[in-house]
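Tip: read the tokens left to right.
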């Protein structure tokens, strides 16, 4: 499985266009924020809280960290579709390699790619914060972010593996990639705060696993800005803001804790991984 993982990593990083397009969703979010959403978000809160610029910068950067694993792991799974299109997959299916090892090799390589690109995104965010004069993240915050990156990449890779296992053609994969890249920002509540959407949409966002990764990143990156912005403000004002911006999720009168969000993401990982293995084994036996 390790050798198969190395093979997938080489295939991905050899194709520069694949690396670029897997990061395209991140570039789109960053571009939309800088050109359009940034001023609108800051203006909507500058009369209510102090330091709105830093607060919203931290909010959008947390969202970028959340969607980076999704877009990059999806791009890395292009190797599966390419193997099917070139009939290479038939060699794997007829070999002694088990379905579990085959899926594990794809997911492990995707996990490594997701971690590498997420770390790159974190470096870019640190540079951005430095340029804006916000200061660098503390060692504790960096450790918390690294831990959240591992979990978010894990659930993203298992989820995208399940999605890609359903396709056999490169055209279908390209279409799916476009759809995912377009919708991921809305489904995770990054383009629009969750509080500005309908209740039904809020439920979709609150129970989408990647949204919990965004929530965890926001709690870390927005911790210090929120202390400054809400110092002296009523506790209810801070609570309402956290719910409106998706820093915390409250569904059916229950507010998710950090541990519950982590547990939910790990459970989702197991479910998606099991479904992916099931589909792969069914196709191998057919």
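Filled-in amino acids:
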């Amino acid at each position: 499985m390790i050798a198969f993982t190395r093979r997938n990593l080489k295939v991905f990083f050899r194709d520069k266009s694949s690396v670029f397009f897997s990061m395209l969703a991140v570039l789109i979010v960053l571009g939309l924020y800088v050109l359009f959403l940034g001023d609108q978000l800051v203006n909507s809160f500058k009369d209510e809280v102090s330091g709105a610029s830093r607060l919203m910068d931290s909010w959008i950067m947390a969202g970028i960290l959340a969607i980076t694993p999704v877009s990059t792991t999806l791009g890395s799974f292009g190797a599966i579709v390419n193997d099917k299109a070139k009939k290479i997959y038939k060699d794997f299916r007829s070999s002694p390699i088990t379905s579990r090892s085959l899926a594990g090799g794809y997911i492990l390589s995707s996990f490594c790619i997701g971690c590498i690109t997420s770390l790159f995104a974190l470096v870019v965010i640190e540079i951005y914060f430095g340029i804006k004069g916000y200061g660098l993240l503390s060692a504790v915050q960096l450790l918390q972010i690294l831990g959240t990156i591992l979990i978010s990449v894990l659930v993203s890779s298992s989820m995208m593996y399940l999605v890609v296992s359903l396709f056999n053609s490169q055209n279908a994969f390209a279409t799916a990639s476009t759809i995912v890249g377009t919708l991921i920002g809305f489904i995770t509540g990054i383009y629009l705060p969750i509080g500005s959407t309908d209740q039904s949409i809020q439920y979709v966002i609150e129970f989408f696993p990647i949204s919990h990764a965004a929530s965890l990143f926001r709690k870390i990156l927005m911790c210090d800005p929120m202390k400054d912005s809400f110092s002296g403000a009523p506790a209810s004002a801070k609570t309402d803001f956290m719910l409106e911006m998706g820093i915390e999720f409250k569904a059916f009168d229950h507010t998710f804790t950090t541990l519950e969000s982590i547990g939910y993401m790990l459970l989702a990982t197991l479910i998606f991984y099991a479904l992916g293995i099931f589909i792969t084994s069914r196709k191998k036996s057919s």
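The longest helix spans residues 99-132. Residues 2-285 form one domain.
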